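ok so I'm stuck.
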Amino acid sequence: VFRARMGLECDRVSRFSLPYAGLLVASLLIFSLGSFSVVFYYLSLNFPERAASMLETDLILGGGDSQYPQLYDGLMLFWLVVYAPLVEELVFRGILLQRWGTKWGLRRGVMASSVLFGLLHLNNPLGLTLFGLVMGLLYVRSRSLWVPIVCHALNNMAAVAIDGFSKMTGVESSYSVADVQASWQLGLVLIAISGPFLAHFVWRSWPQQDDKIPYLFNTVLPE
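replied:
not stuck anymore, here's the structure
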């Protein structure tokens, strides 16, 4: 029974390739951009000052108000591409998912850790909740914390690249609250494009009733 189960798990992991991971990260980025547009639209209607401050804040690169902008950008790049993926995946998937999965069951542990992850990212709670859900399912599916860490790093790297390109072209500085408000319908289109693929991944990767928590599976002894 143990060998059969191990064979099934190895088959599940082998079907997860690097191109598939790239497609998954791209879909998450598209969904995140779309969900941000929709959430921002409703936020700007009810809290216009908060919406305006979100656009004025440089959350990725740009040197901020530092006297050493290159050093600042280098540290931010390290934070986003290396430190944040390692720490966030260790905390949310490696610790919280494990503990809550042990307490409430694996499915509830995945959901609870994903919702908390999204709520702590106030700029885009909907997109980041789905992101956390996909990272949690990647961990459950691969039985390795390195898989969501790498995908998380790729996602942040792509976001940094998009941010850098928008700064180089001058597109970012021209954005206003009205511009982002007008893009909410495009946001729905982006959600419609990426949603089916992500929903299929979630459906295929959703834990079975008897699936073990990754830590327990990795430490179980063969019979």
